[in-house]
Design brief:
By secondary structure, this protein is of the alpha+beta class. The protein is built from seven helices and 17 strands.
């Protein structure tokens, strides 16, 4: 038996195709459901995203049909929760559609609305992320407070700025970010009663008039190497506080940087890189995991 014959016996002959990509090491398993509908349950999502037993990823992305845009993007967390927005995920899905269509622009419908995406360079995408909103009801806070100056103190974290950009965030401005234990500081904030549906917690350090260093502790409880929506709300919060200027701001995160531009109405445009990891097929047994 040749090596080729051996592998043909071991590897599945078919299954659901997927592409694994990452935006600044924020990893996604991407499935195209436009021809074959796909509605995975929470256990299946967890299995696929678990690097020990599945493909491994921070989120599962499902591309479907849209009556309002070129495609619809479902963003599924590892705990099965569907979220409305993720900047890094949108860039990766948009790049696949840009390559497929051979165009320089595409539109993606998400839970946060229709997002316009454009080719910004080799393996680089710009996304109009929508408006950063500071309204306590929209954010989903437990009761009325000033979102621009939260009455919440956890150690060195105080005067947080809460925001919504398709998902809830709170940003704290601190000093000497590399010396801090982000998870230990952010975990109690994420689970504070003020946030009934939890919240993404960003720790931001302003390094200059157009430069921010950022780390984000995302739902359901992990420090990620990069967070596109977190970068958008951090820049908007810094501009409202007068900590950075009104133009484009570079946001440096653990895996690299994105550029954020915001308008007077809070509209945010994010530009950043995407990369392929690998591709393959999900075995039918994996799809049946429940």
């Amino acid at each position: 038996m040749t090596k080729t014959q051996l592998w043909s016996r071991v590897l599945p002959a078919d299954g659901r195709p997927f592409v694994k990509m990452h935006g600044l090491r924020n990893h996604f398993v991407i499935v195209d459901a436009r021809e074959a509908p796909y509605a995975p349950q929470a256990a299946e999502i967890a299995h696929i995203c678990d690097v020990q037993v599945g493909v491994g990823g921070d989120q599962l992305l499902v591309i479907g049909h849209s009556a309002r845009a070129d495609a619809y993007l479902r963003i599924l967390n590892v705990d099965g929760r569907e979220v409305d927005a993720c900047g890094n995920a949108t860039r990766c899905a948009a790049w696949l559609l840009l390559q497929e269509a051979g165009t320089d622009t595409v539109t993606l419908e998400t839970g946060a609305g229709v997002l316009s995406c454009a080719r910004a360079g080799p393996m680089e995408v710009s996304v109009q992320m929508g408006r950063v909103v500071h309204d306590w009801k929209t954010i989903g806070l437990a009761h009325a407070v000033d979102p621009l100056d939260l009455p919440l103190v956890r150690g060195p974290l105080s005067r947080g700025v809460a925001a919504w950009i398709g998902n809830p965030h709170v940003t704290f401005f601190i000093e000497n970010l590399p010396s801090l234990n982000v998870a230990a500081l952010a975990h109690p904030v994420q689970n504070d009663p003020l946030f009934p549906e939890q919240v993404n917690v960003g720790l931001a350090e302003v390094l200059g008039p157009a430069l921010i260093r950022l780390q984000v502790y995302e739902r359901p409880g992990m420090v990620t190497a990069a967070c596109g929506t977190g970068a958008c709300v951090a820049v908007r919060a810094a501009q409202l506080r007068g900590l950075v200027g009104p133009g484009a701001v570079r946001v440096e995160m653990g895996a690299g940087a994105v550029q954020i531009e915001t308008g007077e109405d809070g509209g945010a445009v994010m530009t950043g890189p995407v990369a392929y990891s690998f591709w393959g097929h999900l075995p039918h047994e994996m799809e049946r995991t429940r």
